[in-house]
Task: structure prediction
Amino acid sequence: MGAPAAAFERIWNAQALSHADLMALARAQAERRIGPKPGARCPLCNFPTHQWAREIAEPVAALIRADFAAWQADDGACERCAERYAFLAQAPDLVGGRPHSLREGRRSICTDEK
Ligand SMILES: [Zn+2]
Result:
């Protein structure tokens, strides 16, 4: 039984629930929420965001992990970063023929400019 179903069972079967009981259940659910909170910093670009990507497909997640080895899908990513990596996943030919690494691309752009 998942956490929401367990919470429902607890409420449904309770003889009585106080305001404090309901608030405790609500807090417990909020803490279980997967993904970062609104206004938290994106682990990829480090900018605060309220627009977290709702879903990150596995090929996109693999590209993110190529740049951020410790990153996991539950860490989340802002919509902007998720879009950038999704673009890389779909169009590797547009970034030097290699389907990796925005970090690497940035580094090579910098070295080309010298
Ligand atoms: Zn970001």
